[in-house]
Amino acid sequence: MTEQANKEELNTNEKAEVINQEEQPETIEEELASESKDASEAVKNEEAPDTDTLLKKIAEQTDEIDTLTKKVDDFNNRMLRTQADFDNFRKRTSKEKADARKYRAQDLVTDMLEILDNFQRALAVETVSEDGQALKKGMEMVLSKLENALKKEGVEEIASLHQPFDPNVHQAVMQEDSAEHEAGTVIQVLQAGYSLNGRVIRPAMVKVSS
Questions:
Q1: Interatomic CA distance for residues 45 and 40, integer angstroms
Q2: What does the pLDDT average to over 24-53?
Q3: Which burial class, exposed, middle or buried, applies to 109 when counting CB atoms under 10 A from its CB (0-12, 13-18, 19+)?
Q4: Helix, coil or strand: residue 9
Q5: Which of 14, 29, 156, 182 is deepest in the core (most CB within 10 A)?
Q6: DSSP string, 119-159
Q7: Rounded Cα distance, 101 and 116, in Å
Q8: CB atoms within 10 A of CB 77
């Protein structure tokens, strides 16, 4: 092959490449512009929904929103009721625990009151002998310690003598006419009454004027 033939073949190949390049889009911008134009035409060709269809969709969405709103309201109401019930339960449990601590010694105190009564009856007996006086003094010391121990637990004697009769703290077992007192006044205490931290554990047995 001659040198002239080689030059002609190279020129032919270069012309073919130029033709191929001319057939492709010149830039990326032109491709994007073409795609955008096609999309715009497609949107224009789509039919817009009619008014009835739009109103129907709006009504359906409104109903769905109302339903969801009711569900949320019901859930909130249930949650509030549950929280209120739990708060009441917690308060009630706390009160029960506080009362249990406050009145834990009630059974023991009730039994001790009988011992206290016996000490007081024994000390009310008159004695003149030295031995009797010594025994009485020892009993007074024991009674004083017992009263102090009960007082630390919250035990208090109910004020009754010369007080108006109160059925909440007094138990009337006798009545007697009295010119010195108004009717319904406690004129004698037959058995002392006691309270534990404000709760009556034994009412006072009393005689009341009529």
A1: 9
A2: 58
A3: buried
A4: helix
A5: 156
A6: HHHHHHS---SHHHHHHHHHHHHHHHHHHHHHHHTTEEEPP
A7: 23
A8: 10
| 192/150 Cα distance (integer angstroms) | 14
What are the beta bridge partners of residue 186? 208
Report the candidate in 130, 108, 203 with the shortest Cα–Cα distance to residue 163: 203
In DSSP notation, 39-84 reads: HHHHHHHSPPPPHHHHHHHHHHHHHHHHHHHHHHHHHHHHHHHHHH
The span from the first CA to the last CA of the chain, in angstroms, equals 157
Per-residue pLDDT averaged across 113-137, rounded? 85
Strand partners, 205: 171, 191
User: Running DSSP on this structure, what letter comes out for residue 184?
Assistant: T
Token output for 129:
């002998």
DSSP 3-state of 173: strand
Tokens 């012309």 identify what position?
15
What the block records as the tokens of 207 is 């005689």
Give the residue from 168, 210, 169 showing the smallest Cα distance to 187. Answer: 210
Banded model confidence at residue 98, pLDDT cuts 50, 70, 90: confident
The candidate with the shortest Cα–Cα distance to 206, out of 176, 179, 177, 170, is 170
- Asked if 210 and 176 count as a contact pair (C-beta separation under 8 A), the reply is yes
Tracing tokens 């917690």 back to the chain, one arrives at: 90
User: Higher-confidence residue: 118 or 10?
Assistant: 118
